[in-house]
Design brief:
Length: 67
């Protein structure tokens, strides 16, 4: 895991962490936490050769929440 901390020009402290995951097990943690923690999982199963590809995007514990 790599962590980076910095402060914006407005004085907001930011901490960013990245953890490399094996692509075959990358969504396992998202599936595990998505029912009990705030977050989202977006999955595209639509594929058109040379145009669109499949993708998955998921996160838990969002850094920003809007009411």
């Amino acid at each position: 895991m790599t962590s980076t901390r910095f402060t914006t020009s407005g004085g907001v402290n930011i901490e960013k962490s990245m953890t490399p995951l094996d692509d075959k097990q990358a969504l396992d943690k998202i599936y595990q936490y998505i029912d009990t923690h705030k977050g989202a999982l977006f999955v595209s199963n639509y594929e058109v050769p040379d145009r669109y590809s499949r993708w998955d995007l998921g996160f838990v514990h969002p850094a920003l929440e809007l009411p």
